[in-house]
Amino acid sequence: MNKAMKKFIGWLITIVILVVLFLAAGPFYIVNEGTQVVVTRFSKIVTSHTDAGLHFKVPFLDHVIEYPKLILSLDGDEQRIPTKENQYIIVDTTSRWRITNPEAFYKNFQTLANSYNKLSDIIDSSCRTVITQNRMSEIVRSSNIINETKAEEQTDDETIEINNLVNADTTNEVVTKGRNVLCKQMAEKARAEIAGYGIELIDIVPRQVKYSDELNESVYNSMIKDRNQVAQAYRSLGEGKKAEWLGRLESDKRSIASEAYRKSEEIKGNADAEAARIYAEAYNKDPEFYTFWKSMESYKNNMKGYPATLSTKMDYFDYLYSADGKR
To answer: DSSP assignment, residue 252?
Structure first.
């Protein structure tokens, strides 16, 4: 083997070694579905890729940072926030967001952990701002359906009378915005603060809204008071109904008794008239017998208990002194 051939083989081996070393250094990288990358060189952005595929980088100099393209969630911490009425409630939220510009995201945060901390502060602040500007009813309710339902249930006279007795407003506060609108306002305020961060905030949703401990006690006491008022109103209404029915019962009793007395007197009158008619007919048939019978009835009733009667001659005793029992 001559000298030129040896030199060629030496160069060929050197090139092969360099190619192997180059390939071993990883000059290519893959962007998978659902991910996006930022390529930096000496901490400065060289390029970025949001579509899946195979790409080239300078070995040992370029650094590939991968971020998710999928929708991410962020659960906030519980916050004790005063409402417009200065009533404290406990609120914690969950938010959905995603990275739309990886280069802007890298410039502002570099890592996901940093973005979570910053986003959490911004979302908590927007939540607090919106809640403190609105009434509690706007925060815990989304519509006025409870008012409409109660209005339908309160159409009967008894319910209206109960409401009048307790002197209570039967309609809850009217909701003009509602929880859904307030959530949109929170999201809009937070979006204004993260503009230019390479982030899209999709929404902010309260996971739970609950009363603080001191408000809990106040609410329970108020509910107990309201229930006691309603119970007393029902008792008062019952006593009133009882008195009304007892009065109606006495009136009916008097009316029935009066009608019965009227009918009995009418029957008695008819009976007396019938008896008089019968007596008249009997008298007309035998006046002498009628006179005798009436005299006997009179003796029986007037002379009962008298062992002797001392009297001069009187027409009243004609039947007693007559030997034949005639006048």
So the answer is: H
For residue 189, give both structure tokens.
């305020």
- Asked if 72 and 98 touch (Cβ cutoff 8 Å), the reply is yes
- Please state, in angstroms and rounded to a whole number, the distance separating the CA atoms of residues 267 and 287: 28
Q: Report the DSSP pairing between strands 88-99 and 79-82.
A: antiparallel
Nearest C-alpha neighbor of 67 from the set 44, 26, 97 = 97
Where do the DSSP E strands lie in 77-134?
A: 79-82, 88-99
Q: What's the pLDDT band for 292 if we cut at 50, 70, 90? A: confident
Q: Which pLDDT band holds residue 187 (cuts at 50, 70, 90)?
A: very high
Query: Tell me: the pLDDT tens digits for 128-177?
Result: 999 898 888 788 777 767 656 555 555 556 666 666 655 554 446 777 78
CA 23 to chain centre: 69
> Contact, 56 vs 28, CB < 8 A?
yes
Per the CB < 8 A criterion, the answer to whether 183 and 205 are in contact is: yes
N residues, the chain: 327
CB 104 within 8 A of CB 36: no
Structural contact between residues 318 and 296, judged by C-beta atoms closer than 8 angstroms: no
196-64-52 Cα angle (round to 5): 80
**250, pLDDT greater than 60:** yes
